[in-house]
Amino acid sequence: MVTGPEAPRRANYHHGDLAATLIAATVDLVAEKGPSGFSLREVARRAGVSPAAPSHHFGDARGLLTAVAVQGFEYLDRSVGEAVQSVTVPADRLRALAFASVDIGLRHPGHVAVMFRPDLVDGSNEAFQEWSGKPLQRLGAVVAALAPHLDPEQVDAVTSTIWATLNGFVNLYTSTADRLDADPDLRRLVATAVDVLHTGTIATDGAQR
Amino acid sequence: MVTGPEAPRRANYHHGDLAATLIAATVDLVAEKGPSGFSLREVARRAGVSPAAPSHHFGDARGLLTAVAVQGFEYLDRSVGEAVQSVTVPADRLRALAFASVDIGLRHPGHVAVMFRPDLVDGSNEAFQEWSGKPLQRLGAVVAALAPHLDPEQVDAVTSTIWATLNGFVNLYTSTADRLDADPDLRRLVATAVDVLHTGTIATDGAQR
DNA sequence: AGCACATCTTGACACTGTCAAGACCGGGCC
DNA sequence: GGCCCGGTCTTGACAGTGTCAAGATGTGCT
């Protein structure tokens, strides 16, 4: 992006491309110690640069965390996009989207810990605004395609509910991941939850009690 | 010096009971700026004491946050307990529990922001260990009473799913509460979600796909 | 070659959490 | 009463943190 003509090879200056290195170091650090264990100086230390170096790429400490969040949303969007595209049966798309979302969340705890924390991220950032909304849009599209007989308001309701459930699973299983990596169990849980929510709110006329 | 003799009741010492005041100040601060905006010195400042005063009551900054989390779990447990007790029909108890949980979450954002953050809390704390497990136990009991035909494993699965969904709702709507206080809508959403999950996983033989 | 720019370092400042040591208050003891 | 003692808070200090202005250093362009 800012890094000139994307020259990762030459990279003879001092570091190559610091921005990516700093983001990676931040992700690792947050994954280890949580967002409260994050420290700009520690990140700089791990990247082998001075404490003030990150400021030239991200301005702020918040700027760096925002970049991490954006990368997380990019990963999520890409993964969900592929999952949805690789499945043709509309009913199965929802489950594929759910699996992709939870998988990404569990595989990138350092990103997740930042992505949904307004106090850590610069909400006015352009890239963040662009990417942070995409997952919900994708889910909304799948739900809408799956339920043409529902009005937009009801589609939004179902979308929010499923979105909340997926977020809940990710939050729960990333917090307690150190003592619980019940991946197969979790997969079954997500599947049944999404299926049940699907048949209960879309297949029947539900969504309005 | 700055505080002067503004003592509320007798409480003539220096402050009355500092511990409660510090907890309250922490809750307010976290509710305003999020956990990353928390500062032990700022809390002490708001309470009108020196920066080192909290250490005599909570030891650590983490100790203070842990006390906040414990208080949050106490609130939650009390509210859920009352809700469950005030409803006799087992099928309605689940919904009452869900409402109580979400209500408490939205009403106490300063607590919620700390309760489920292992990096902010001292997990080895006695009171924390005692209280942090209670909400899930309560939910598990309601689910078990509602589904005597399911084996414990399935009960756990359903419990986890509902728990994740409730947490997801709270996380979502406390993060974006500044621009979205759709309380009535949220109430409907929670109701339908819980009902659907109930009928889908318990009423039918579901829970095992 | 030399210039302009991007990149990183240095030094400094205010702020934070934490600790040891001391000051202060209350109520007990003789 | 006078005295000490435990609980409560303050003071002063230290290392660590984020951020900024200024300077140093390498890179590419003309």
Q: Tell me roughly what share of residues is in helical segments of chain A.
A: 55-70%
Strand count, sense and closure of the main sheet of chain A?
Answer: none
Largest interface, counted by CB within 8 Å of the partner chain's CB: A-B, 40 and 40 residues
Shape of chain A: elongated
Protein model, in words:
- 2 copies of one chain form a homodimer.
- The first copy, chain A, is mainly alpha-helical and 209 residues long.
- Chain A is 68% helix and 0% strand.
- Chain A has 10 helices and no strands.
- Chain A has helices spanning 18-33, 40-47, 55-58, 61-85, 90-107, 109-115, 126-132, 134-146, 152-175, 183-203.
- In chain A, helix 5 (90-107) runs antiparallel to helix 8 (134-146) and helix 5 runs antiparallel to helix 10.
- The longest helix of chain A has 25 residues, at 61-85.
- The first copy, chain A, is elongated.
- Chain A binds chain B through residues 33-37, 116-120, 157, 160-161, 163-169, 171-172, 175-176, 185, 188-189, 191-193, 195-197, 199-201, 206-209, and chain B through 33-37, 116-120, 157, 160-161, 163-169, 171-172, 175-176, 185, 188-189, 191-193, 195-197, 199-201, 206-209.
- The structure holds a DNA duplex (30 and 30 nucleotides).
